[in-house]
Amino acid sequence: MKHAMQLSGIALLLALSMAAHAATDSKAVSASNGKMELFGGRIDGEGSINLSGSYSFPLSTYLGVQFDGLYGQLDGRGVYGAGGHFFWRNSDYALLGLTGSYLQHRSADLWRIGGEGELYWNQITLAGQLGNQSGDLGSDGYGRIDARYYLAEDYLMLSAGAGHFDNRTVWGGDAEYLTDLGGLSLFASGGRGGDGFYYALGGIRYYFGAKKSLLRRHREDDPFNPLFSFMSDSIDPIKRAPPPASF
Questions:
Q1: Is residue 112 one of the residues assigned to a domain?
Q2: What is the 3-class SS of the chain, one letter each residue?
């Protein structure tokens, strides 16, 4: 499965490089914007409550930047995360970018450096992440691929996908419903992997910026916050790792 994830990521990046030649007036980021998310549930049997946020702004017509943050409680201990994206995007065709992120839990420091990509076709988005994680758990590659479908462009998205890290593949799905209350949406996410690992999370998300459909928000404003999958991928390896030495 790990090799399949890597091949899928390479294929996505090649397709994105081809899409980059199809230039239109569509921009990387339509205007400065952001979002806040409050979500909770269970990750591998542990209770979790979290607050995260993202802020994006354009650098030029086809280049954008995003900053992400996360703070929460997992198994009664703090979780802290921060990250950033630098990306090219044509909102009619594709996104291609670089990402970096940091996560701390149970005194373990974790880092991720990698790439991300998205391909757009009508109401379908194919998205992928590929890179390397390092820190107190050692060094290992990670990958993820998702297919998103907008049943109704204005308000409903369903997605399914898989991620691989630490010799484990986790299959999962997501749903998001944009309400009539400005930029407020409801979302849920769940997944299951080997050794009984699972996560089930849900919450609310608020988008700041111009009023637009859910599909346009996802393709014209801030990319998805990767700290969400970073946390769910890494919690079980952190629990299985020996505690850091104390002096």
A1: yes
A2: CHHHHHHHHHHHHHHHHHHCCCCCCCCCCCCCEEEEEEEEEEECCEEEEEEEEEEEEECCCCEEEEEEEEEEEECCEEEEEEEEEEEEEECCCEEEEEEEEEEEECCEEEEEEEEEEEEEECCEEEEEEEEEEEECCCCEEEEEEEEEEEEECCCEEEEEEEEEECCEEEEEEEEEEECCCCCEEEEEEEEECHHHCEEEEEEEEEEECCCCCHHHHHHHCCCCCCHHHHHHHHHHHHHHCCCCCCC
> If the chain, 247 residues long, is cut into consecutive pieces of 10 residues, what is the mean pLDDT of each piece?
47 46 66 95 91 95 96 89 96 96 90 96 96 90 95 91 88 95 94 88 94 93 88 72 47
- pTM, to two decimals: 0.85
Q: Answer whether residue 80 is part of any domain.
A: yes
Q: Which residues of 202-215 are buried (b: 16+ CB within 10 A; e: fewer)?
A: ebebebbbeebebb
Q: What is the CATH number of the domain that holds 226?
A: 2.40.160.40
The boundaries of the domain holding residue 170 are 2-240
Query: Is 247 a member of any domain?
Result: no
Give the total number of structural domains in the chain: 1
